[in-house]
Amino acid sequence: MLRTLLAAAALFWATAAAPQDQTDSTTLSLVEARHVARQALYAGRFDLARDIAMGLVQADPEDPYAYAILAAAHARLNDPRLARAAARLSYRYSDSGAQKFDAARNAARVAFQQQRPTLSQAWLRLAAIHAETPTQEKLLARDYRQVRSANPLHFNLNLSVAPSDNVNNGTDNVLEVNNGVPTLGRFGGSSRALSGTVGILDLRLRYRLARSAAGVTTATGRLYTRQVDLSDSAQAQAPDVSNGDFGSTYVELGLERRLGFGKRGNTASVSGAFGASWSGGNRSYDFAKLGLSRGLRLSPSTRLSLRGGVERRLSTRSAAWDADVLTLGSSLSHKRENGDRFSLGLTVQNVTGERLNADYDTASLRAAYTFAKPLGPAQVTAGVTLGVTDYDKYTLVGPVPGGREDQSFYGDVSFFFKDYDYAGFAPTVRLRTGKRTSNVNRFDISESTISLGLQSKF
């Protein structure tokens, strides 16, 4: 069979290379056959390329180049199952990192041609494992952006593990003091700061339902969960609590309509969602919310975002615990000429409800700066967050004169080690420290955490 295929390849090569000069040669070396198979692909002779590649496989069942030709030929001959199988074998039998890089990238191209962008992204992630040069990384980044843009499914997964000296937002105080006046109250072990480890998973999904010149309609989903592992000292301090008492989970499903509005680069969107929240292992409330946003391109390097939303929370305990939430926010981002990025965001929120201590206003201001030039092996982002929360009326055992007011200040710095990636995911380290002070010292807290996570380079 191989001799027959090589004869056909020779005839094709002779005809393509010199139509006026016939040849009686019926043999080619394996290297020449590979070259002819590639030329057959370029010439659109996919059936011939397939046949030559099958002969090469017969001669060497572990020839990665032959399987790469087969993958491309089967893809163009509308046989996706065989194309994917050949792509996998090409990767499997590749020996060097460079060969595996090319094989995985070729498999991604085959999947993309078959309109399977999620599979294409997975192959590109695999190719990233074998990328060894800046040129290869640039090719992958370009390919990934193209596939991601075409993929109706977009997902963003954040994972972090953070040792913390205050996993429960507990107070540092022992005796209760309100407005500087000591009371007879004494804080129990579970009300005081407990040390341990916090694990967070935050998965966001978006699926494009429709796209036109007018705009894009997207289905959205989110799963957020925060789980705690108390240290031995924390369990000794508060033996009446368990890890699950401090866990929380949030699930949301929704729709969003985004469209261009005004000048080029300006956008507007409307969104709606419903979901549920769990705390301490128990379902706390269900919710429905509506949001509006506006994006303004102030200059090629500066963008302003405005947003607003209303939310109705329905408690699973009692209607008295229902709440309404109004949120307004804005953020400004700017890229400097040297590549540094600066952002400033403000969020204000009003919460109202029937039960005691359910009415309050809160505001937070955050500023962050990302340096374009790495510090050693890491890209650095530093930020500060200021917050204030005000309760006109607040009650503990009895009313607190003047209500309750909290003030908080947190600083953080993040290090992104992009050169130490695996499959395009690189480690991050985030240091965060700060404190909250209150006229009701039950809510005085301080916290320091070191978070370890992963971030995509693409």
How is this structure best described in words?
It is a single chain. The protein is of the alpha+beta class and 458 residues long. It starts with a helix and ends with a strand. The protein has helices at 2-17, 30-42, 46-59, 64-76, 80-93, 97-113, 117-129, 134-150, 232-237; strands spanning 153-164, 175-178, 181-186, 196-211, 215-230, 248-260, 267-279, 282-299, 302-315, 323-335, 341-353, 360-370, 379-391, 404-416, 425-438, 445-456. Helix 2 runs parallel beside helix 4 and helix 3 runs antiparallel to helix 4 (64-76). Strand 8 and strand 9 (302-315) form a beta hairpin. The radius of gyration is 30 Å and the shape is elongated. Helices cover 27% and strands 44% of the residues. The strands form two sheets. It has a 14-stranded antiparallel β-barrel. The protein has a two-stranded antiparallel ribbon with strand order 2-3.
